[in-house]
Amino acid sequence: MTTKNSVRIIHEERGRKLVVIDEIIFRNRQNIEWKAVEIYLQKYVGELVEVASTKEIVNISNDFPDEFVGSIYTEKLRGGLAKVKANLGQGIIQIVQIAEKIKVLKNKKKKHRRDARYGWHYYKTCFAIPVFLEKTNEIKYNKYSALIVVRHAHDGEKYLYDIQNIRKEELKNQNDIK
Q: What pTM did the predictor assign?
């Protein structure tokens, strides 16, 4: 188990890795303060993260925080999923580390001809976020999967671009997390 800033990596029953984020720092569900999220994410700029399954190095560049909070995907998020995306930023390093590559697509948009010259790499990842149950004063965890979007730039480097397609999944055993 790895711990850093209340973020852990655990192994689920079938050996899959899961990032557990133990703290909610962006609490509002209705009006996420995306500027605060962007400022929070800036502390990761310059980090190099190795994807354990592929040994590929992913850079977190200075355009990541802006894209993370200002993407079309993020603008469409409402309620609980917006809160989830805002809070998953705490575990961004670990979420990339445990990811598994699923596909590579060529770039088709003119606006990305330089920053994604060699295409887009997509990785699947999983994480869990706590939920406080007021009636019982308990904390349980909700599990989510997401798609990590990485651009393969003209300089041959891979850069973290966004986290998309966040989906709630069934968490078979709450005791795995505790």
A: 0.89
Judge contact between 42 and 89, C-beta under 8 A.
no
Cβ distance 58 to 137 under 8 Å? Answer: no
Other C-beta atoms closer than 10 Å to the C-beta of 49 total 20
- Over the range 150-164, which residues count as b (16 or more CB within 10 Å of their CB) and which as e? bbbbeeeebbbbbbb
80-106 in b/e form (b: 16+ CB < 10 A) is ebbbbbbbbbbbbbbbbbbbeeeeeee
Cα separation values, 69 from 41, 42, 75, 110, 117, Å: 10, 12, 8, 22, 23
Residue 75: both structure tokens together? 């603008």
Q: Could you read off the pLDDT of 20-56 as tens digits, one per residue? A: 999 999 987 778 899 999 999 999 999 999 999 999 9
For the stretch 58-113, pLDDT in tens is: 999 999 999 999 999 999 998 899 999 999 999 999 999 999 999 988 877 777 77
Tokens 């997509």 belong to residue: 122
